[in-house]
Specification:
Strand order of the largest sheet: 4-2-3-8-7
Radius of gyration: 13 Å
Order of helices and strands: EHEEEHEEEE
Distance between the termini: 25 Å
Number of helices: 2
Largest sheet: 5 strands, mixed
Strand content: 35-45%
């Protein structure tokens, strides 16, 4: 569907989302992160849009064109949203400003 064109999920992100979904994962945003917005990850039984990810309609305009990757680093592993539209991104990778 058209949602699959909104974000790009890497293979590692797809695999990870399958392991944490209950059965699916819900991505929304919350204004108030360190750069203005924060990504909120929750589980949902709503119909997924891409893989098993359901994107909040309000979050759509903020994540369009993003790539979601599951990154493993020394500090731990986390879902990273790479947003080409974000002008400022904080180090935690969770907040961004458009």
């Amino acid at each position: 569907g058209r949602m699959s064109e909104i974000v790009n999920l890497t293979e590692s992100a797809k695999e990870y989302l399958k392991t944490v979904g209950d059965p699916n994962v819900f991505l929304s945003i919350n204004s108030g992160g360190c750069s203005g917005f924060q990504y909120i990850w929750e589980t949902t039984d709503k119909e997924p849009h891409i893989g098993n990810l359901h994107i909040d309609p309000i979050a759509e305009m903020y994540v369009i064109g993003c790539t979601i990757d599951y990154v493993t680093e020394l500090g731990g592993s986390f879902l990273k949203v790479s947003n080409p539209n974000a002008t400022a991104s904080c180090g935690c990778g969770e907040s961004f400003a458009v």
